[in-house]
Amino acid sequence: MPRLLPALADTPDRPALRFGDRALTYGELASAAAPLASRLDGSARVAVWATPTLETAVGVVAALLAGVAAVPVNPKSGDSELGHIVADSAPDAVLAAPGTELPPALAALARIDIDVRVDPGPPAVLPVEPDDPDTPAFVVYTSGTTGPPKGAVLPRRAVSSTLDALRDAWQWTDRDTLVHGLPLFHVHGLILGIIGPLRRGGSVRHLGRFDTDGVTRELASGATMLFGVPTMYHRIAEALPTDPALAKALSSARLLVSGSAALPVHDHERITAATGQRVVERYGMTETLMNTSVRADGDPRPGTVGVPLPGVELRLAEDDGTTEVPSGDPEAVGEIQVRGPNLFLEYLNRPDATAGAFAPGGWFRTGDMAVRDPDGYVRIIGRKATDLIKSGGYKIGAGEIENALLEHPGVKEAAVKGAPDTDLGERVVAWIVPADAQNPPGAEELADHVAGRLSPHKRPRTVHYLDALPRNDMGKILKRSLPDG
Predict the structure, then answer these.
(1) Domains recognised in the chain with CATH numbers
(2) Which residues, if any, are the signal sequence (predicted)?
(3) Residue 266 region, left (φ>0) first, then alpha (ψ -120 to 50), else beta?
(4) Cα dihedral: 354, 356, 357, 363 (round 10)
């Protein structure tokens, strides 16, 4: 297949990446990534310590050039989660910025420092990339509703087809400069937010950490696109009434895109009223990359995630998982199922989970419930199950949090689900049956316990204490009987 990032060879003088005051042109990026790619030759997978830095971007580009699957690792992951990811993916090495202190879970791996210094010299000789479109490009770990995260193996065709479909939907060109402050260990921030601009031959300016001042500065100085999650847009909406410079900067953008969870209509309306801009929403998953989007030249229609992207087939299925919901009925609810070149190959080392994720005919079961307007616009109404929490742009499995809570000696039983939150979209809420009712563990103690084992964004923000959890005759916890807390 053609190169994933043709601009590395075609436009050496064009700006490619900027993180703070550190930047690389396409030629410099090629010169930094090509030697690293040669060191990765022969590897199957490499872990990338995915800090929001220039080094992470260079490391991932090198892996793509070498045809080696990159396993982005969240630097905030706890020891249990890191240990699982390392044991499951078995990377041949870990890539990290020089001087970075890595946790014990990565200590046994060969370490390769990512050198972004570029010496003057002839243009870099880029390696020959794999011809097979099913060659794995990434293994991205995603939280399920139970158990530890699963590694979704994403092939090169999924990356190229999604990014090319977004080129069509968003009219994305080499003249665009993207600004965002998203983490680089998941699909949104890394594949869409870094590899996306590089595939187009445009540039990306990463904020390091999201703040409205950074958004103002970059959009006011020539950036044309902004990527964010609803939490970020909520904070923008809150700041707009007293920040005319932010409003002016946003009004100059070509495209504002929100993803990873639904953006509340109220925030849509406040941003539009202050800037004249409509935020575009899209819908995707780790396993599918992007499925739908509101088009840049289409009706923004708050509350919808637009129409299927080019090349993506989408249907709504009845509860039996195979019968299609009648089309054109905006009241008919069904599970979103998709198929196309954007789909993942498998869950690493989990053939059972892989088989269970698909309906007959190669349709991937997303677990998201939706209705469809007569003109094809998709409106997501929630999860088929109650155990996936979307908080601050993250998808969090309740099961792994429950397991972490049950490791605390003061917890006898635990149940976790999401509750609506104006800032985060949903917040993690836990119901606890303490081992000692007279001396229950404190909420802060439990939150720290979960954050230390998993990740800070998975900690419960609210903890309730009960004498017993509601269960059915089979002993299953009845989460729908627990109030939204």
Answers:
(1) 7-372 (3.40.50.12780), 388-481 (3.30.300.30)
(2) none
(3) alpha
(4) 110
Would you list the DSSP string of 48-75? EE--SSHHHHHHHHHHHHHT-EEEEE-T
State residue 429 phi and psi, 5-degree precision: -120, 135
Residue entry with tokens 């696109």: 225
Tens of each residue's pLDDT in the chain, 485 residues: 789 999 999 999 999 999 999 999 999 999 999 999 999 999 999 999 999 999 999 999 999 999 999 999 999 999 999 999 999 999 999 999 999 999 999 999 999 999 998 877 788 889 999 999 999 999 999 865 557 899 999 999 999 999 999 999 999 999 999 999 999 999 999 999 999 999 999 999 999 999 999 999 999 999 999 999 988 998 999 999 999 999 999 999 999 999 987 787 778 889 999 999 999 999 999 999 999 999 999 988 888 999 999 999 999 999 888 999 987 777 788 899 999 999 999 999 999 999 999 999 999 999 988 889 999 999 887 667 666 688 888 868 777 788 789 889 999 888 888 888 989 999 999 999 999 999 999 999 999 999 998 989 999 999 999 998 887 543 567 787 887 66
**Token reading at 83:** 């240990």
- CA atoms of 111 and 98, how far apart (whole Å): 10
Write the CB contacts of 107 (distance below 8 Å, at least 6 apart in sequence).
Answer: none
Residue where the block lists tokens 């370490």: 111
Question: What one-letter code names the amino acid at 33?
Answer: A
Q: Burial of 194 by CB count in 10 Å (0-12 exposed, 13-18 middle, 19+ buried)? A: buried
Q: Please tell me whether residue 437 adopts helix, strand or coil conformation.
A: coil
Question: If you search the block for the tokens 């299953």, which residue do you land on?
Answer: 476
Query: Are the C-beta atoms of 159 and 129 separated by less than 8 Å?
Result: no
Provide CB contacts within 8 A for 211, sequence distance 6+.
181
Cβ contact 325:333 at 8 Å: yes
Cβ contacts of residue 286 below 8 Å, gap of 6+? 140, 142, 152, 154, 186, 187, 344, 395
Spatial contact of 81 and 131, defined as CB atoms under 8 Å apart: no
* Total count of residues recorded for the chain: 485
> What is the pTM for the complete model shown?
0.84
Q: Identify whether the C-beta of residue 453 lies closer than 8 Å to the C-beta of residue 402.
A: no
- Using alpha carbons, select from 229, 231, 227 the residue that is nearest to residue 215: 227
Closest CA to 162 of 132, 205, 202, 200: 200
